[in-house]
Amino acid sequence: MTYIKVVGLHEVKLYDGKYKKDEITTNFANRLKMERERMGLSYSKLSKILMVGHTTLHEVETGRTTVLLSTAARIAIGLGLSLDDMVMGR
Fold first, then answer.
1. Terminus-to-terminus CA distance in the chain, angstroms?
2. Using only C-alpha atoms, what is the Rg of the chain?
3. Domain 3-8+26-88 sits in which CATH superfamily?
4. Is residue 8 pLDDT above 50, yes or no?
5. In the chain, where are the structural domains located?
6. Quick one: which of 55, 59, 81, 87 has the fewest CB in 10 Å?
7. Residue 10: per-residue pLDDT
């Protein structure tokens, strides 16, 4: 099960007790890339579908940034997946 970790006043990140933060970020990024490529979409096209900035998608997919819970949920739902699917690779 995926939990949230409050990092700052306005920031929450994905967290799972069994995974280190880097593993969660990597798993999420890999699944995002896999799904985007499977759908044959560019960052620009997927960002319009998900209503998430294309720069944000790129930074998340390349692991340059961790994803906020609200953004992670928007991405997962937009791809028809759960957060657990995105983080645990189910």
1. 12
2. 12
3. lambda repressor-like DNA-binding domains (1.10.260.40)
4. no
5. 3-8+26-88
6. 55
7. 46
